[in-house]
Design brief:
The protein has 2 domains: 5-56, Spermidine Synthase, Chain: A, domain 2 (Roll), CATH 2.30.140.10; 60-156, Rossmann fold, CATH 3.40.50.150. 28% of the residues lie in helices and 33% in strands. It has 5 helices and 10 strands. The strands form 3 sheets. The protein has a 4-stranded antiparallel sheet, with helices on one face. A 4-stranded parallel sheet has the order 9-8-7-10, with helices on one face. The mean pLDDT is 95. It comes from Leclercia adecarboxylata.
Length: 157
């Protein structure tokens, strides 16, 4: 029986996460980072950037729902939302559920993340990239914030 390939998160020297890799769906060194998307029996599809897990299919809703809905509901009347990062599309999916939002702008530094997640993590975005209120800007988030004249009611970082 062949031994399964293991993937180890590299964020910390003293502890980490290990995942059995059932199947590598995509692996590329983009202009900005090393991106891997693989399948794991327990967590479904897993995406890591530069050796650090960013999201998994099984548990992403836990943090995306909280990070999105709490600020929007606390604001009470948000119309224009800025997402910095979030190229996997899950936060966009959650913002898109709020029908009173008029515009959603996502600034993602790496176009590859959006492209690959759209293909390999379709449940994360659930079609929200096609929302007519959505605009994608490929840029560094700090640069965008320093240069834009637009204002936003809620910022998600």
């Amino acid at each position: 029986m062949a031994e399964k390939k293991m993937w180890h998160e590299t964020l910390h020297d003293q502890f980490g996460q290990y995942f059995a890799i059932d199947n590598v769906l995509y692996h590329e060194k983009t202009d900005h980072q090393d991106l891997i998307i693989f399948e794991n029996a327990a967590f479904g599809r897993v995406m890591a950037l530069d050796g650090v897990v960013q999201t998994t299919e099984r548990d992403e809703f836990i943090y995306h729902e909280m990070m999105t809905h709490v600020p929007l509901l606390a604001h009470g009347n948000a119309k224009h939302v800025l997402i910095i990062g979030g190229g996997d599309g899950a936060m966009l999916r959650e913002v898109s559920r709020h029908k009173t939002i008029e515009s959603i702008t996502m600034v993602e530094i790496d176009a590859g993340v959006v492209s690959f997640c759209r293909q390999y993590l379709p449940n994360h975005n659930a079609g929200s990239y096609d929302d007519p209120r959505f605009t994608l800007v490929i840029d560094d988030g700090v640069n965008f914030v320093n240069q834009t004249t637009r204002t936003f009611d809620v910022h998600h970082l």
